[in-house]
Amino acid sequence: MQSRSNNSYQNDHFNNRLSSAARAKEAALAKFRALPGPNDPAVLARQEAQMAVAAAREARAAERKAARQREAEELAAAQRAQAAEQARLEAEAAAAAIERAAQEAAEAARAEAMKLDAEARAALLDSEAKARALALAAEQKALRDARYAARKARR
Hints:
- The chain has helices spanning 2-34, 41-154.
- It has two helices and no strands.
- The chain has two domains: 1-35; 39-154.
């Protein structure tokens, strides 16, 4: 007997579960049927709002991309300007070095010319001094010869 009452108890639970499942299924179906259709104004308004949000998101993304591109172009322009300035400074430094080298070469040539001129003047003075010394020696010899001849003439 116990098995019969136990069996009916189990059937009662089973029937409860079946009816509970059927009610849940019916509730879900009713909820689904209550959903607005694709042409409902609320659905259309929500879709339009979503499209507006998506369009705004795309516009912000495009704006960020344009800003990044402008920034990259400005950076490239700044780098080009910096490179041009660096090249100009290097060219000025090279020109200054060339000018210094030319001035040093001119100064060295001027110093060499002055040295050669001084040597030429010294050589000229030496030759004049030699000529005076020779003339003096010749004059002294002539005086000596004259004295010698005068002594001979007195004898």
